[in-house]
Amino acid sequence: MADRKTRGEEGRKMKAYMGFEKDYFNEIAVLIFAHSVKEAKVLGWNNCDFCDNFINYRVTQIKNQSWIFKEMIKDTPHVIDNPKSCEECMMWGVSEIGADGLCEGCRELNEPTQTTD
Ligand SMILES: [Zn+2]
Q1: Would you say the pTM of this structure is higher than 0.90?
Q2: For residue 111, how far is its CA from the centre of ligand 1 (angstroms)?
Q3: Ligand 1 mean position, distance from CA 86 (Å)
């Protein structure tokens, strides 16, 4: 394996993961940027204030959600233990949180039915 890394390359290869407690999926979770699930697991565990309380700590890759990379604050692997979440359902990682503070699902629910314009 080549070990030729620049900060830029490192950033591009990064994947997004969600580290969470099995029984509280999405309620208590951290966002992890890392290169592999193995790295994410270790990183999430070591860099999360509340993960010590996790009994069934799991890590899963967040796929097909390219907007999540907007949350990245640096090019090297890191953990965000308070990712931007929906003001209504408190979830994150499902869809992008808009300027209104809502995820797509909650925005749709809040929108009055568009019958006329
Ligand atoms: Zn929501």
Answers
A1: no
A2: 13
A3: 5
Find the 88 Cα to ligand 1 centroid distance in Å: 5
Instruction: Reduce the DSSP state of residue 48 to 3 states and report it.
Output: coil
pLDDT, tens digit (0-9, with 9 covering 90-100), for 41-66: 999 989 887 777 778 889 999 999 99
**14: number of Cβ within 10 Å:** 21
CA of 92 to the centre of ligand 1 (A): 8
Where exactly are the structural domains of the chain? 12-82, 84-117
Compute, in angstroms, the gap from residue 100 CA to the centroid of ligand 1.
11
Cα distances (angstroms) measured from residue 96 to each of 14, 40, 93, 100? 19, 21, 7, 11
CA of residue 13 to ligand 1 center, whole Å: 29
Q: What is the CA radius of gyration of the chain?
A: 16
Helix (H, G, I), strand (E, B) or coil at 59: strand
**pLDDT, tens digit (0-9, with 9 covering 90-100), for 4-54:** 444 455 456 899 999 988 876 556 789 999 999 999 999 998 988 777 777
